[in-house]
């Protein structure tokens, strides 16, 4: 049976707006005032996002400001991500959605299948079926998300390609993630704090050992639009979804604006840990 989802293709926005809109979409999905949604978006300017419980002290604020990059804290877990030169996706649905119902890990696995299909359409041979004993492959937390593999994380050539995180709140689920299209993955180390330059360089080397961009895998640059088309087709064919492309509803936009002002642009939220 074919399911109908919304497809929202967003114009590039700053970090606070992107996270506020994702949470607004989550609330709407949980309240079942809208159907499940796949949102594809980008960031302008570039932004460093911290995981829900990541220490604010990880950030080198002076370097971040010198580069005119923004800072935001995500409603989902995980570690820091520099959102630049990437395609970002989010999926929002009620917890009892017939496609994504089940435990957090089960829904994460289901979405990973759609992500793998999307990458296959781009010519990428990726895997995403590995589980780790404690949910990740390392016991010591790292400041950078793409250093650490997690359950059903998408990898190519043995390196992390798509990083994702999920939150369950209000009776709904939000999963969002990043596909780096191109560029220098070590740029993130320039806006994080380290005990020494040697430690910074070591972390940069570890990122290159554990993560990869789409360009590095394919040997050519894939445009944002081409990657977005593959995601739409990947989700559609995996779950037998008919997409209705639209914009967020007026209530969602009002909710996002309020969340941006009261939460995601607030130091109380950003510096909460």
Characterization of this structure:
This protein is an alpha/beta fold and about 270 residues long. It has a single domain, classed as 2-Layer Sandwich (BirA Bifunctional Protein, domain 2), CATH 3.30.930. The protein has eight helices and eleven strands. The protein has helices at about 15-30, 60-65, 105-120, 195-210, 215-220, 225-240, 250-265, 265-270; strands at about 5-10, 35-40, 45-50, 70-75, 80-85, 85-95, 125, 155, 160-170, 170-180, 240-245. The strands form two sheets. It has an eight-stranded mixed β-sheet with strand order 7-8-9-10-6-2-1-11, sandwiched between helices. Strands 4-3-5 form a three-stranded mixed β-sheet, with helices on one face. Helix 3 crosses helix 6. It is globular, with a radius of gyration of 18 Å. The model is unreliable at about 130-140 (pLDDT under 50).
Question: What characteristics describe this protein?
Answer:
273 residues, alpha/beta, BirA Bifunctional Protein, domain 2, 8-stranded mixed β-sheet, 3-stranded mixed β-sheet, 8 helices, 11 strands, 23% strand
What kind of sheet is the major sheet? 8 strands, mixed
- Helix and strand sequence: EHEEHEEEHEEEEHHHEHH
In terms of DSSP E residues, the strand content is 15-25%
Q: Which term fits the overall shape?
A: globular
Structural class: alpha/beta
Strands across the major sheet, in which order? Answer: 7-8-9-10-6-2-1-11
Q: What's the short version?
A:
Helix content is about 35%, strand content about 25%. With about 270 residues, it is α/β, with parallel strands linked by helices.
């Amino acid at each position: 049976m074919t399911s109908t989802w919304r497809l929202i293709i967003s114009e590039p926005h700053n970090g606070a707006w992107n996270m506020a809109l994702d949470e607004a979409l989550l609330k709407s999905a949980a309240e079942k005032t809208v159907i499940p949604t796949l949102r594809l978006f980008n960031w302008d300017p570039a932004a460093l996002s911290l995981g829900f419980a990541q220490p604010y002290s990880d950030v080198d604020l002076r370097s971040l400001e010198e580069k005119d990059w923004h800072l935001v804290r995500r409603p989902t877990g995980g570690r820091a991500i520099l959102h630049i030169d990437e395609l970002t996706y989010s999926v929002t649905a009620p917890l009892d959605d017939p496609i994504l119902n089940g435990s957090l890990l089960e829904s994460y696995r289901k979405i990973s299948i759609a992500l793998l299909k999307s990458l296959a359409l781009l010519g990428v041979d990726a895997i995403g079926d590995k589980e780790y004993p404690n949910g990740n492959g390392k016991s010591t937390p790292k400041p950078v998300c793409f250093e650490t593999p997690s359950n059903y994380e998408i990898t190519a050539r043995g390196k992390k390609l798509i990083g994702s995180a999920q939150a369950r709140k209000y009776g709904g689920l939000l999963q969002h993630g990043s596909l780096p299209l191109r560029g220098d993955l070590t740029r993130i180390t320039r806006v994080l704090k380290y005990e020494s330059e040697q430690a910074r360089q070591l972390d940069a080397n570890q990122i290159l050992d554990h993560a990869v961009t789409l360009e590095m895998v394919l040997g050519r640059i894939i445009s944002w639009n081409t990657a977005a088309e593959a995601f739409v087709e990947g989700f559609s064919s995996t779950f037998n979804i008919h997409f209705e492309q639209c914009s967020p509803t007026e209530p969602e936009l009002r909710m996002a604006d309020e969340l941006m002002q009261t939460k995601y642009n607030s130091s109380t939220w950003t510096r909460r840990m």
